[in-house]
Specification:
This protein has 147 residues and is α+β, with helices and mostly antiparallel strands. It has four helices and five strands. Strand 4 (132-139) and strand 5 (142-146) form a beta hairpin. The longest helix is centred in the middle third of the chain and has 27 residues, at 51-77. The termini are far apart.
Length: 147
């Protein structure tokens, strides 16, 4: 085996490339932090520092990047994590289109132009068609509402 393959410089360069490739494949902000640690260790190897210092730098920098910048990156770099429509419906008013009666298993309501199966949040409480109600929670495809 060629001697340059065993050098710390090659090791850190190879690790950095592997972490970057994994990050490109997964696109999940999972390994970019370790690529940063490998970069710092590569620089320390080029300067000629001890291998033990390089390893300590790798773990320290990776840890700092992971725990200090990941929350920022998830919030601002990957902002596509938005609430889904159903989460935004909680607290909104809906128009009851079919009498809501939990005992008979009937009831529909319209919210944002979409018709949903609706149930009363309070058992035994009937809500008549044509009235408005407020969404309290959503379970599956059913709205649970109160008058």
């Amino acid at each position: 085996m060629p001697e340059f393959l065993l050098s710390p410089i090659f090791l850190w360069l190879a690790l950095m490339v592997i972490f970057i490739i994994v990050e490109i494949i997964t696109v999940g902000l999972t390994s970019i932090w370790f690529a940063g640690g490998a970069l710092v260790s590569l620089i320390s190897a080029l300067v000629g520092w001890n291998v033990m210092i390089q390893v300590i730098l790798f773990f320290a920098v990776s840890f700092v990047l992971l725990f200090c910048t990941r929350p920022f990156a998830l919030k601002y770099v990957k902002p596509h994590n938005v609430k889904t429509n159903y989460e935004e419906m909680i607290g909104k008013e809906v128009r009851v289109t079919e009498r809501i009666d939990n005992r008979n298993g009937t009831g529909t309501a319209v919210c944002n132009g979409q018709e949903w199966t609706a149930r009363s949040a309070a058992d035994g409480h009937v809500i008549e068609a044509g009235t408005t109600a407020q969404v309290v929670e959503i379970k599956g495809v059913k709205l649970y509402v109160k008058s």
